[in-house]
Amino acid sequence: MAQLLSWTADLSVGIDAIDDQHKRIVHYINQLHEARLTQDRNDVAAVIEGLVDYTLSHFRFEEAMLQKALYPMLPVHKKVHRLFIRRISDYQQRFALGNDVAEELLITLVKWLGNHIKCEDMDYSPIVRARISEADLRQLKKGKSDSPQRP
Ligand SMILES: [Fe+2]
User: Residue 136 pLDDT > 80, yes or no?
Assistant: First the structure.
């Protein structure tokens, strides 16, 4: 089945751990697109849940990395993440009430992910690459799997 969104080099922030997580989110977006086409509400529900859980865990990882890098714009970046979580929660609630939100949600996700990566995420790239080592990233990944609580 045709993909809705493809990973392209212009989405790379130059940090493999982050690129891998963003690729996984792209994969979830494509899964949601496929689930929507099958019109199976259970499939759509499962993908939305997986996508939301994974995005929350990605944000936690990214924020921990930015904290470690003493990235000065972290408070603003966190705020952007929180606002996005609120928007997605609204879609989840509407979905739970029986509304068909998949198409709207997909449009939001595709737009938001591209903009966020190219603007806010690109902005931290030079600082993180200068201040965070591979060993730091491995440590952060361990911490991520050790503390799976939601924000
Ligand atoms: Fe981000």
Answer: yes
CATH number at residue 129: 1.20.120.50
Q: Is residue 4 part of a domain?
A: no
Each residue's pLDDT tens digit, 108-130: 999 999 999 999 999 999 999 99
Identify whether 59 is part of a domain: yes
Domains in the chain, number: 1
pLDDT tens across 26-62, in order?
Answer: 999 999 999 999 988 999 999 999 999 999 999 999 9
Residue 33 lies in a domain: yes
Cα of 125 to ligand 1 centre, how many Å? 11
Residue that the structure tokens 């993908």 belong to: 47
Distance 59 CA to ligand 1 centre (A): 6
| Exposure class string for 131-142: b at 16+ Cβ within 10 A, else e | ebeeebbeebee
